[in-house]
Amino acid sequence: MSDLLQQGLILSAFGMGLTFAGLGLLVVLMIVLGRVFRTRKLVPDSVPTDAPKPASLARDTRDEEIIAAIATALTYLRGLDVSQGNIGTSLEKGHGRWWERGLIHKHQSRMRFRGGRR
Q1: 3-class state of residue 88 by DSSP
Q2: In this structure, is the dihedral angle defined by the CA atoms of residues 30, 32, 37 and 38, taken in order, positive or negative?
Q3: Residue 30 CA to chain centroid, in angstroms?
Q4: What percent of the chain has pLDDT over 90?
């Protein structure tokens, strides 16, 4: 082998070896840091055995149903206002002047270079 090719192979091997050694060092460092900063379960100091149950409050379910229906209707109507834009009308108009000008420019550039480059 020529001297230049041999130097290139040695330099490539050295570079790849250094890269893999650096990656291996990063993997080892991540494992060590994962063990050092491991999350631990929190154990409560004392667990109450006879905790009092919360008192059940009497609710007026009819009022809650009315409130839920109003909130649902308002959410639905607000969703309609957001989704109704003018994108449909602009899509129905077709291509604009910028798009048409781009096509004209593309066709002109094709015609210009058919006879060969100048």
Answers
A1: helix
A2: positive
A3: 25
A4: 27
